[in-house]
Amino acid sequence: MLRPVSNTQVRVEYHTIHGYRRAYRIAGSGPALLLIHGIGDNSSTWNEIIPMLAQHYTVIAPDLLGHGKSDKPRADYSVPAFANGMRDLLVVLGISKVTVVGHSLGGGIAMQFCYQFPRFAERLILVAAGGVTRDVNPALRLVSMPVAHEILNLLRVPGVMPSLTLAARTLAAAPHLPGLPSAVSPKRMLNDHEDLMRVLGDLTDPTASAAFLRTLRAVVDWRGQVVTMMDRCYLTERLPVLLVWGDHDTVIPYHHALLAHSAIPHSELETFGGAGHFPFHDDPERFVRIVADFMDHNQPVDFDPTNWQRLMSEGQRPEDFTGDDETVEAVLEAIEDERSAT
Questions:
Q1: Each residue of 175-210: b (16+ CB within 10 Å) or e?
Q2: Which of 7, 82, 87, 245 is the most exposed place for a label (fewest CB within 10 A)?
């Protein structure tokens, strides 16, 4: 079992790229791992696992532009723009090959990175990734609407954040709430309340709040997720892919994992029973062990331009999808949905 060692040092460093300062955590040596966090979050979300991974790998965990300690300009916060930012940082660091790990929005960015810059990508790990179907937590749909600015302004009112945190903890500890089916546990509904409160706390900064809204509106509207990675999944044909999901995820439902697994037939799926949207927080040692096993058992892919040309010329092959008829039908619906392709 991998465990952090005392001489594994995690450093927060900065580079100014295209005029914007970008922060990132970096540690270890060996094959490169790029960890991409989700919306409103930052690289500190990986704090528990970086020291463990750094025993065997060079771990780079950036703060996306508009997040954490990176600059928060009025800029392009689309998924392709974030993928460009990851490429630019790797170029500055002198890293030309990387295994990409993306969580939530970071999963969509990771998929986009592998599509835009296949020469960089050796393996892909998607953790509760966005971009499968429209489904997303209703709270994110609400915040994407025009009233969101006023809602987020309330977070800066003294006492609001402590009250929200206390309410979330109280509800999560309750065995049952009136009006809910007895099978629905408040703990399950609020599985990720500590992480979500941490993210909300960061949004009390007006520049962070503005960047969050620009990012959210690039990927979510009142109907749900507005971008999809499903129509490009076939391009991963030779790329080793690992899917990691908590089966109690209330942000991006677990059935998205099953659809992604069907659309990427050669992918491996690891389910964290009882975990929510942050499975690497629920069981960090298991997460690290799974990543290490995946790295050990899957050789990095070498980019083949001839194969890439063939794949893009032939396009998606629905007959390759796996799973039962209902799952395959749901995958086809997700691909045919009128959403922006990443």
A1: eeeeeeeeeebbbebbbbbebbbbbbebbbeeebbb
A2: 7
Q: What is the dihedral of CA 129, 130, 132, 138, to 10 degrees?
A: 120
Map residue 104 onto helix, strand or coil.
Answer: coil
Please report the pLDDT score of residue 162 as a whole number. Answer: 54
Active site residues: 104, 249, 277
- The domain limits of the chain are 11-136+225-341, 138-221
Domain 11-136+225-341 class, CATH top level:
alpha beta
- What is the pLDDT, as a whole number, of residue 189? 45
Q: Which regions of the chain are under pLDDT 50? A: 1, 4-6, 160-161, 163-164, 166-168, 171-172, 174, 176-177, 179-189
Residue at 209: amino acid letter: S
CA atoms within 13 A on the CB side of 192: 23
Q: pLDDT at position 170, please?
A: 53
